[in-house]
Amino acid sequence: MAAPERLPASRPSAQHVVWHWATPQARTILNSGDLGAILRFHRTVHGLNQTELGNLLGYDKTYISALELRKKTLGDVGSLRRVAEQLRLPPHILGVTDPADTDHRAMVQFGQSTVRLAEIARQSGHASEAVAELWPLVARLEARLADGHAEREVLRLLAHARVGLGVALGNVLPEERLATAAHWTAKSLSIAAHFNDPTFSSYALRMHGNELRKAHIRGAAVDRLRHAAALAPDRETRAEVLPLLARAAGELGDAQLFDSVMQEADGLIESAGHTSLFNPYALHEIRLRGLVSTGRADVAIRLVDHGPGSTTTVAPQWRVIELITVAHVRLLANDRGGATESLNTAMTEAVVQRLPHQLQRIVRTAGDRLPDVRGQAVQALDRIRQEMAA
After folding, report:
1. Which residue ranges traverse the bilayer (predicted)?
2. What is the per-residue pLDDT across 5-50, written as a single tens digit (0 to 9) for each?
3. Which among 38, 114, 206, 279 could bridge 274 via Cys, Cβ 3.0 to 4.6 Å?
């Protein structure tokens, strides 16, 4: 009787391999520069035996075994560089410094700077410029990842860049295309999950949850934001989540969750640092909108004129958001004059900052009660759509 045919050994998927190189264990091994440990880890991740690794590197099994046991070393720069190239590692990991390695470090530093500057641009009301800077960076990093280069610092940079791109797109895209923004923030989560960094994971979940809310995927948005709050390792990080969780809870119509989150945020406002997301001005707008969404417009009307003044921590787009919310509450109080004034100011700023989603909010808020304002907002929105389609 013939022996049964042996199936070939299965290999880990490419994605499985990539994430293993992002783990804390991999970081420890790579930082050690120990060639033997690196070779053993490479074999484990890729499911290779010593013979197969030797075929890849051009050595026999005996030599690979000797390298792993530190009985032999690679003393010449050429061999070390070739091994680094075959293993798809930066040469400096194996102690080689050359122009290619310098380019790698410069690429990471440039990418980190690009992400920081793009976020500053977005917070300053220039989200379109942020998108223009982040698109090519993300494409370059994803091409590097597809080519098998999965250095920890590059993966972390890619996750930050994907979040930044998604959030910036969430500012400049109209509502019917906001799922694209959520798509990009979602792509950061798979990387963040492998870094064992609660602050970064909370950040990625927070920004993704907010983009889900804007795309009207409210239940999932609340789930992600609750997870972000649970992961937050300190008061400052949790304070960054609360405004977005409150807003999502309000839009979901969950009055109990909305009230509890707002109560916690109010309790932290004096002790946690103020940011563009967490400050009295932003919380006032969120409170007004949430009260209306949970059927308490009468309370919102009483509070509408008691908001704090804006400060330097308030991003320009938040001013637009707040003006539209205030206009909505004023219309509920039959104050058409006050609503018109707020919407006209918001419209001017939304056009300057190229915020189509906010123009759509103006169209809905004005409705049939303020037809002139609605018509102007529709025209402004059409112009932006035409420019985006050109």
Report:
1. none
2. 443 344 444 444 444 555 667 768 877 888 889 899 888 878 889 9
3. 279
